[in-house]
Design a protein that fits this description.
By secondary structure, this protein is mostly helical. It is about 40% helix and about 10% strand. It is built from four helices and three strands. A three-stranded parallel β-sheet has the order 1-2-3, sandwiched between helices. Helix 2 (about 70-90) links the parallel strand 2 (about 50-55) and strand 3. Helix 1 runs parallel beside helix 2.
């Protein structure tokens, strides 16, 4: 395996005890431990794999009242932190693809916003387009690139 893309956080950050979220909620400390354990498993089985950690995008709390952008932002930050920690260790090739949008500046850089979601949680075509564009920008900037990938539109 040359590439692993890990997208966690959108369901994990659902409101604890909220309707429909009983089986989905993962406390933030456990979420962080799980992310670190997943990276360790990749390191153990395939040290040369390139891992892309994808932050959860924002959520539409009007459509999903048991989810909040504020709560999801905390999970997005954990993904960033775990990625930075793994990069600092140089133990596994890790990049972070940051989809989180908070404010106009983030939208301008291409992060996913509520209008890029088809149902308030999942990416619509425009959201998937932004993922592709952000990934290409990462490659062009050579920002924390520890492996080179060929992506097709």
């Amino acid at each position: 395996m040359k590439l692993a893309v890990i997208c966690f956080g959108a369901n994990d950050s659902v409101q604890e005890g909220g309707e429909g979220g009983e089986d989905l909620y993962v406390p933030l400390p456990l979420f962080k431990t799980n992310m670190e354990d997943i990276l360790s498993a990749f390191r153990a089985h395939n040290p040369s794999v390139c891992v892309i950690l994808v932050t959860p995008p924002t959520v539409n709390s009007q459509l999903w009242p048991n989810r909040s952008p504020h709560r999801t932002a905390a999970y997005a930050q954990v993904v960033r932190d775990v990625g930075k920690g793994a990069q600092a260790e140089s133990a596994v090739h890790v990049q972070v693809l940051d989809l989180w949008a908070e404010g106009e500046g983030e939208r301008e850089r291409g992060a996913v916003n509520v209008g890029d979601l088809c149902d308030g949680i999942h990416l619509a075509s425009s959201g998937n387009d932004k993922v592709r564009i952000l990934r290409f920008r990462m490659e062009e900037a050579q920002t924390n690139i520890l492996c080179t990938l060929t992506l097709y539109p």
